[in-house]
Specification:
Length: about 425
């Protein structure tokens, strides 16, 4: 009987991988290639968060040609298109079949604890015992909602992007979208197009054109080496990990604040407070937009310099002029929910990993995972899919291959050391 089948009976394996998204499946493929006995535990189905926690119209922000995993890549007839939600699910499903990952679906991990020199992974169906643990449950376990949401009046519905599905599910009336990163601008655009009056509260954000000089911006980021930038190449990795996701949408069009203003979305500053049925907006809007414009200009200038030193074989369009963010002379500083019939606040204020079940000395006082490039402070524990975990591309589908290779060899070395210690008593 194989080691994998013995492990399935006894609940003992070398490695437990938690999460059957693209990162967990990529690690499973690596472990199988190296003959490591392991199991992948998934609370729902393969690609569960894509199935259950995304809005209907979502498309990948990266073009199809960039969709790749170890031994598996997009092979359709639209390399410059953007996968729909169902296509992403099919892509990950196919990968699970290709690598024959030993996935146990419908298994919710309830607790992970130390047990002698192993880890015990308790679930709602059975326990597993392992020497190494891979946390591949991703960076989007729960939506972050600021504490000020508790001050919303009872007539206003508080909603997160993980709960939102489509415009028609919302109550009649206006919508305040809080947050202007990728999620916020996409949802503001969809809701405005559906006929709702949308106000978008804007704080720090990253402005990017969808394409520049006739080429998708992701292609330029790859050519400049920005996507491969490592954590040891930045001055302050903690600050960089907090940088918002860029304002991109899964289509050939640029979706920035100017585009939203042109469609009737009202742009205001970040929400500074909620009091007496009114949202209060910061006066920092102009500064945030000026900084985003400046950073975009610097990036585009670096692309132009790259072109000068690397003859590009495709005819490039002229750079053209990208207008600075337009703002009214005096953006308003308050909104009365009742008088303006604003019935929904959609908090596009980011996501956090969920490690509430991880009872190991691996979390800081705020419940955040302590790790160095995915190597967790608890021995034999590794993480995948976190924002700028090892490289700038770590949280994207195409970022899994390099991270899995690096951490996979770290894991193998840990198992070998474990065996040597066991052999010497």
């Amino acid at each position: 009987m194989s080691a994998a089948r013995r492990g399935a009976r006894t609940g003992a394996v070398d490695v437990v991988v938690i999460g059957a998204g693209h990162s967990g499946l990529a690690m499973s493929a690596f472990l199988s290639q190296h003959g490591v006995d392991h199991v992948v535990l998934e609370r729902g189905q393969v690609a569960n968060s894509w199935r259950r926690e995304r809005w209907d119209s979502l498309r990948l922000l990266t073009p199809n040609w960039l969709s790749r995993l170890p031994g598996h890549r997009y092979d359709g007839d639209d390399p410059h298109g953007f996968m729909s939600l169902s296509e992403v699910i099919a892509f990950i499903d196919d990968y699970a079949r290709v690598v024959a990952a030993p996935v146990r679906t419908g298994v919710t991990v309830t607790s992970v604890t130390e047990e002698d020199d192993h880890y015990r992974v308790s679930t709602d169906s059975r326990d597993w015992r392992c020497r190494c643990l891979v946390l591949a449950n991703g960076a989007f376990g729960k939506a972050h909602v600021p504490a000020i949401a508790a001050a919303l009046p009872p007539s206003v519905r508080s909603l997160t992007p993980m709960e939102y599905r489509r415009p028609q599910d919302l109550e009649d009336g206006g919508v305040l979208v809080v947050g202007a990163s990728a999620t916020g601008v996409q949802l503001a655009d969809e809701l405005q197009r559906s006929g709702k009056q949308v106000t978008l509260a804007v704080g720090e954000h990253i402005r990017l054109p969808r394409s520049y000089r006739g080429r998708d911006i992701q292609g330029w980021l790859e050519s400049l080496g920005i996507l491969d930038q490592r954590i040891d190449e930045v001055d302050d990795v903690v600050r960089v990990r907090r940088v918002p996701s860029p304002q991109l949408v899964g289509s050939p069009a640029t979706l920035d604040l100017n585009a939203l203003t042109g469609r009737g979305v009202e742009i205001v500053g970040r929400v500074a407070g909620i009091r007496d049925g009114r949202a209060l907006f910061s006066g920092s809007l102009r500064n945030h937009c000026a900084m985003a414009d400046l950073k975009q200009q610097r990036l585009l200038a670096s692309i132009d310099r790259w072109i000068e030193h690397h003859p590009y074989r495709v005819d490039l369009r002229d750079a053209g002029t990208i207008a600075p963010t337009w703002l009214p002379d005096q953006p308003r500083l308050a909104m009365d929910f009742g008088r303006e019939r604003v019935r929904t606040v959609l908090w596009a204020t980011g996501f956090r990993p969920d490690y509430s079940w991880l009872h190991l000395p691996a979390l800081d006082a705020k419940g955040q995972l302590q790790h160095e490039g995915g190597i967790v402070s608890a021995p034999g524990v590794y993480a995948l899919g976190l924002n700028f975990m090892r490289r700038r591309k770590s949280s994207f589908i195409h970022g899994a291959e390099d991270d899995v290779r690096d951490l996979g060899y770290e894991l193998l070395a840990h198992l070998e050391a474990f065996d040597r210690c066991a052999a010497t008593g």
